Amino acid sequence: MLSLFQNPFTYWLRWIFTKFKLQLKHSSKHLTIEYMAVIKNCQFGKYNTIQKFSRLRDSSLGDYSYVSRDSQVYNTEVGKFTCIGPNVFTGLGAHPSSTFVSSHPLFYSTIGQASGLVIVDKNLFEEFPRTFIGNDVWIGNNVTVKYGVKIGDGAIIASGAVVSKDVEPYSIVGGVPAKIIKYRFEKEQIAFLLNFKWWDKDLEWLKANKHKFENIVDFTSLNTTK
User: Fold this and answer.
1) Rounded to whole angstroms, what are the CA distances from 127 to 36, 78, 84, 103?
2) What is the pTM of this model?
3) Which residues of the chain form beta strands (DSSP E)?
4) pLDDT for 53-106, tens place per residue?
5) Helix segments in the chain, DSSP class H
6) Is 10 left (phi over 0), alpha (psi -120 to 50) or beta?
7) C-alpha closest to that of 90 among 125, 116, 61
8) Pick the catalytic residue: 30, 95, 104, 211?
9) N or C, which end of the chain has less CB nearby within 10 Å?
10) Integer Cα distance of 32 and 50 in angstroms
11) From CA 11, how far away is CA 186, in angstroms rounded?
12) Concatenated DSSP letters of 115-139
């Protein structure tokens, strides 16, 4: 009987039902869900795209952010204008590495990862610490972001990096584990951007000032009172 609900056609039906349900619910926000993207318990901003075969659970996306194909975004809050590349993993579950004798969830979790078997009465370990990704962040392909990490606004994560600790705003990091390569702009320019928060401007402002985005010097000359 179980096999009746675990076959390609059933998975497709479930996807098509979820796709139309979510796109109808968020029709005013222009949400795009591509082929076989799996989404559960998520919140969306405006103009989000979830590309093919990606999985999102217990997460939120700010305006204009997108998730590229084959990525998995769990227990993560994503800001506005953030680009998540293909085959990116964020917010995957934690396992205890000290104190507990075993790292297997059978001894601390009520989720039942081992075929539904549960032997504890309550959760004894925080498996899913929240992960935070800021605004205007670019995460390259094949990146893993450890649970509970905070990535600051404007950061860039190089392809293949493993992010195991917090990332400073407007820094470029790469490697395993990820380390700072350089900063995108001068300190004064970074301070201006963090204070100005252009990502909170409306679409009409963005259209009117789009030419300023081509050069950081031109952008920092903007009148912040407008």
Assistant:
1) 27, 19, 23, 11
2) 0.90
3) 32-33, 38-40, 49-50, 55-57, 60-61, 66-67, 72-74, 76-78, 83-84, 89-90, 131-133, 138-139, 144-145, 150-151, 156-157, 162-163, 171-174, 179-183
4) 999 999 999 999 999 999 999 999 999 999 999 999 999 888 888 888 988 988
5) 8-25, 187-196, 203-208, 216-219
6) alpha
7) 61
8) 95
9) N
10) 6
11) 49
12) TT----SS--S-----EEE-TT-EE
- Residue type present at position 204: E
Give the chain's domains with CATH numbers.
2-93+128-184 (2.160.10.10), 186-226 (no CATH)
Tokens of 158: 């190089």
Q: What does the pLDDT look like over 102-153, one tens digit per residue?
A: 889 888 888 888 888 888 898 887 888 999 999 999 999 999 999 999 999 9
Number of H helices, E strands in the chain: 4, 18
Question: Which residues, 6 or more positions from 73, have their beta carbon under 8 angstroms from its beta carbon?
Answer: 54, 55, 56, 57, 59, 67, 84, 88, 90, 91
Q: Cα(216)–Cα(218) distance, rounded to whole angstroms?
A: 5
CA trace torsion 83, 87, 92, 97 (10° rounding): -120
In angstroms, the CA 164 to CA 175 distance is: 11
User: What's the rounded Cα separation, in Å, for the pair 56 and 126?
Assistant: 20
Positive or negative torsion for Cα 172, 175, 180, 181: negative
Q: Is 30 a catalytic residue?
A: no
Q: How far apart are CA 189 and CA 198, in angstroms?
A: 13
At which residue do the structure tokens 């590495």 appear?
A: 97
